[in-house]
Structures are given as C-alpha cells and as structure tokens.
Design goal:
This protein is an alpha+beta fold. The chain is built from eight helices and 28 strands. 17% of the residues lie in helices and 32% in strands. Strand 14 and strand 15 form a beta hairpin.
Length: 496
Amino acid sequence: MKKRPRNNLDKAVVNLWQREVGHLSTRNFALRLAASEDLLLRLDLFRKLDKHRGCVNTVSFNADGDILVSGSDDRRVVLWDWETGKVKLSFHSGHNNNVFQAKIMPYSDDRSIVTCAADGQVRHAQILERDVNTKLLAKHHGRAHKLAIEPGSPYIFYTCGEDGLVQHIDLRTAAATELFTCRPLDDSRSGYMPFIHLNAIAIDPRNPNLFAVAGSDEYTRLYDIRKYKWDGSTDFGQLTDCFCPVHLIGDEQVGITGLAFSDQSELLVSYNDECIYLFTKDMGLGPNPVPSSPLSPHSEASEKGHNQSSASSSAMEADEKSIPQVYKGHRNFETVKGVSFFGPRCEYVVSGSDCGRIFIWRKKGGELIRVIEADKHVVNCIESHPHTTVLASSGIENDIKIWTPKAEERAPLPENIEQFKPKARPRGWMFRVASPEDLMLQLFSLQRRRSNLEENGENSSEGRELLELILSSFNADSDASSDDGEDASAPEDSCS
C-alpha cells in the first residue's frame, strides 16, 4: 500500500510534536518554521511605506530587523519602523543624484549609514543627537550602483562603479583605497570596452576575505583581499576565480546586474535578459579562463543552463561538472535588478521582474513556486528580513511594500507564467548610451587608455577636470528636472 505524501501541514504537526517531546530543539523548530513553504505561499501585502517622492532604488534591514532603511531618486534616506509604518528619521543624503544603495553599518547602534549614488559619490551619514552629519568618502567616474559591507565590521566596506573601479573604505580613517580597475578578460574587447562597467559586488559571509564583482560582460570575478599589499607594492588585479555558464562564454550581448552569496558560500548571479544561475565553489573556471565561442550557440541552451552539443566526451564531462542551477521565468531587461536568497538557511531564491512581480524559486531544483504582483511597472529590489519570514520590495513606484505570511489561503502558482514576460527587445539597457554622462565616460576612458599617464600627466589632468565640469553641469540639469514628482518616477531615466 502506497504511503500518502506528507504535506506542509503534516510536517508542521510532526515538528511541533518533536519539539514538545524534546526531539527537536527550539532553535531548529524556529528555523524549520521560518523556512516553511506553507508560510511562503501565504505571503501577502502587510503594509506600504509611503514617504519618498521618487522611485525607491534600495531597501535594507538593520541587523536586528526592526529598522528598514531606504534610498530614492529624491536623494533622501529614510529609516522606517516597518511594523508600524512610521518614519523614524528622514534626511537628505548629500548626493546630487539618485541614491542607488543605502546600508546601516553593523554594531553602530544604527547611527552609521553608508550610501552610493548616480553621481558616483560614496558618502557616510553619522546620526547625531539632533542632526545628521554627511560627508564624502570616495568618488567614481560614473554611477556607483552597489556597495558591500564586510560581515560583522562596523567600519569596512567596498564599492564598485561604472568606471570599473573597486574601492576599499575604512570609516576609522575615512580613507578610500583604490584596489583595481576591472578589465575585460578577452583582449579583443579592449578596443571598445577598456574596462568593465561594474553593477554588483558581494562578500562571502563564510570567508569575508573573498569578494565578487560583476557588470557589463559575462564573467563574475572572485578576488581575495589578502593578496593586496597595502603599501601599494603590487598590482591587485589578479583573479582568484571566475564564474560563467559555459553557454554564455563569449556572448557579448549579456551582462550581470545582481550578485548574492549564501551562508554556504554559493554564488547567485543574475544576468540581464537571461536567467539566474547558482554556482558552487567547484564550478569556477579558474583565475585565467580562456574566452572561446560558446559550445552551444542554440537558444535552448540558455533555457536549460547547459551545453547539449559538446564536440567530445571530455568536453561534455567538463560541462556536466560546471552546470549551475538555473532559475527562469522572470524578466531582467530594463533596469539594474538585484537578486537574493530567502529563508533562514537560504532555502529560496527571490528576484524582481520587468513585469512588476516578485518571483520565488526553491533553491534546490530551481522550481518556481510563487509569483507576487508587487509594482505597476518594475520590481528592482527585494530584501529578506534577517530573522523571520518577511520581505521588503521596491521598484518604479514611490513606495516600499512589506510582505508577511498573513493570508488565510495559500496562493496558487499562475498557470501561464509566460504571459507576464514583457516582449523582448533587440538589446538591453546595458548596451545603450542612456545619457551624455555615459557618452562622456566612454570618450574619457578611451582617451585615458591611449595616453601614457607619465608622459602626459598635465593633459590627462586637464581632461579629467574638463570631464568633471561637463558631468557636474549635466547632473545639475538632471537634478532640476527630477525635482518634479512625475519626472522623478519616470522608469526610463530615473531608476537604477
């Protein structure tokens, strides 16, 4: 006689009984409860946090999970008591353009906040008794999309920008160290892509010495900060490892918008106009990957995440070893979207989509189990609560949405997910010159690569000053237009 498959309610009853009789610790019971798929299927809108006057580009919980910090196109940073919906503090970030990320430094009594923005600035806000003091820490030439805080450190974090530069910042000295500029691995691309426009940076929580960066090409690069000589006696451009799905190697049409590490050091990578992939440590291509044509050029390979037409058995074995888990169904085309894990042990993967919905997959197996309508336009940011089954999301709309498992009924998965996917266009945002700032950045980078800094230091300095003057003029014009509430929320120009 076949056994009836155990459902979520059965598992919950068994877990409760095991806890009561002492077979399951209180901690493990709480972890199992927080990871319950039943709770995930009951996620529903708990509250809207409405204060910003532009689309919200970043949301992040503090370590305790009782405060949510947000940043917006209105250039303001807001600290929320998300449970009551009340604003604890709102202040101007000091940035001249859209705030792309804001994070609370750990062990700082929630009084130390770091931000980066479209103006390329990296700033530190110190919350005092009666005021907020903000100061400039570092600057990128071009937009600075992301920063990453060293786990457990109240002082150290990293930034990356569209100029390809990665910086290490220590708040104790307010010093920014320029580690390296990320270059293409394929020399044949250097003529038109002198550096990689970086969109994402993440630190491995199990080994904070390791950090990954990714941007306008197909590779995620892993570095070890221990290899850097702080006296500047060595070039810190050497990779520790590199990750890319086999079928995307050599594909010049793709780029990466989001990175995340799990507690098990798994690396989650979100490609624009492609899929999300999960890599384990043994899937790396090594520090010196050899770019080559994709082994499987067919579009079906993109959907399956592996090569189906290897020329030899050895190539097939290597391909099988490097197959990452793939997550699909969403659409990542219009904006710089993040990606993250969900659950106390990273049991799920979550991402926003151009269709205005949140997509949730099981990490193991990649099955899509939940789709939530969350924005009228695009969902860019999804942040998991550090301790419980709560999500915060934001996008083109001016509010932040909090999701908790309060629904009486479990939500079914829509039958036809394809209908939610916006129609594809020939090339994504990553390959468009969206503004005079982007054009000038490209022209400056090409000129900088051709000139010798030692021989032409004066001319290079003058060129940099001219570029900054042009960019500041452009930023001033864009700031004036974004003061209008409607312009601030325009999806094409004002969101990351």
